[in-house]
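Researcher: We're reviewing a set of sequences before deciding which ones to prioritize for further study. For each one, I'd like a predicted 3D structure that I can look through quickly. This is Glycoside hydrolase family 5 domain-containing protein. If possible, include the structure in token form so it fits the rest of the review sheet.
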Amino acid sequence: MAPLRLHIAGNRFRDPHNREITLHGINVAGDTKYPAHPPVPSHEKEHFFEGDTVSFVDRPFPLDEAPIHFARLKRWGYNCIRYLFTWEALEHAGPGKYDEDFCRHTVEVLRVAKRYGFHVFMDPHQDVWSRFTGGSGAPMWTIYACGLDPKEFAVTEASLVQNTWPDPADFPKMVWATNYQRIACQTIFTMFFAGKEFAPKCVIDDKNIQDYLQDHFIAACAHLARRIHEAGDLHGETVIGYESVNEPNNGFVGHPDLANIPKNQNLRKYTCPTGFQAMLTGSGRAVEMDTYAFGTFGPYKSGTHLVDPKGHTAWLDPASWDDTKYGWKRADSWKLGTDIWAQHGVWNPKTDELLKPQYFLQHPQTGETMDTEFFLNNNFLYYYRKYKTAIRNIWPEAIMLMQPQPFEIPPDIKGTADDDPNMVFASHFYDGITLITKKWNKLWNVDVLGVLRGRYLSPAFALKIGEGAIRRCFRDQLDEIRKEGEEHMGEHPLIFTEIGIPYDMDDAYAYRTGDYSSQAAAIDANFFAVEGSGAAGLTWWLYTVENSHRWGDNWNGEDLSIYCREDRALPPPRADLTASTYYKDEDAESDASAQQKKNPNPSYSMSRSTTTSSSTTSPTQQQQANPPGYRAAQSYIRPIPPTPTAPCSRTAST
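Model: Here's the predicted structure for Glycoside hydrolase family 5 domain-containing protein, in token form for your review sheet.
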């Protein structure tokens, strides 16, 4: 069999025979966001703060189950895997302490993916920094390194974390993403990308906190890349490249006024502190702040709420904390127990007066305005170059997938040394209205990208009425993202490495009825958009092994997985081929048996026709016994159409 290696030719992928390849991929898997041993999904309180001793071996799934999942995904038409892993999985025990068992497990799972012919790229995944700040990604010790105490985040609202919510089942929908505007994430991301500019006093082991965090993160990713390279049969044949980091965030960098909520802060839900209010509550002060809810036309102010930490602070108490726990030495200039922004003169903790409301808007040395454009072209690129160098030192032929902040104009690298011919522009797209409301509104939607780019005098003019207009609006937004990439980054393939929809729409109506028509319409609209945008492919969000109707993806109430054991399995493609003869899916019968016990209603069971021959069961009878639906699979199991610019079957001239 010829190698599956891909190479880049302009803005397309080609195989060793110079045929164009469109990447039709899936993110594997949502389960990687939390440990396997012990299993600590975001609704589980027990074992949550045992971050140093967890294990991510068996993520994304146990090795003996890998053939089941890869066979299923291959049968469903996927040819590409965005393989999720987290920094925490690699280095949870402490700085420089790598989990070799996890590395070995990853190599063996990738070898199974190779057997099924997948193209794989590796995604160092994070959401709002870490599980301990309400998301996934970084190990717990990084939060301590930043001088913060994650056990005090709940009372101070430094982060809203489902694991520490009074009743995790009542955790507000989509509120996890608001952690990007709360003190823990704002501080840590500022340190990670701009610590040398804004937190020069924060030095640990003779390094500024920026380089300390970046160097450890990059070294951990490089360690895994080295283990994959040492395997000898994965790089180039199966693993095609490495993504830079999932959804980088600028933290406080570019914040226009700490006394006010920025106008471009579009996600407002639950309590919405200003930057300064977040500093105050993080330091134990009681603050009455605005609350927001999401209505028909977006977020609206719903009232106010008093956040009273009762003297608790989100900063480490030097009386009870010992830095020797992780073996690092903090510089004398960094005083534990006090907000670091107060230490840098942003506000006065004696009078609670804001002194520098625009501290993060201007570069401390040059005076340049540090807006999002500056951040991406300087702070983000500084990190990206270090990451790329580390990966390419191990595997010089690696395809690098640069992922700037979603919905932002990418860095201006066209024609520069960063305009790497072996690079991909990785972007994300979500229909925010559907994601937040968990409803498919076929009556109206909004041209979000157009609003962000200032193309409308009023957001009201950005309304798109009717399902046809909504579909075209999605397509046009994705096409514009592609054009912005070409204008600012040069000619590179564009992959939407995340795009997806919630399955628990309409208060989980489909789970009660088997009617997935809303989900199918939303999925089809998104695929229509990608297919019409000129992108070189996508990796759909998401495949989650342990998805359930009650807890979704087991992470912050999200439920975006295309697969759930509680839904019907796909029937064989022809009446004369049973599922067992068409592909190896050893869990088919066990899934069906388990589901039959949970749900005896045969109309919505997972039973398959694995023993009945075509002589006794016609295709019509099969469809009646197991009617179409299967969690809206008719919309995502689809042929890959020719791209608008070049048919997939065309061979390039040589």
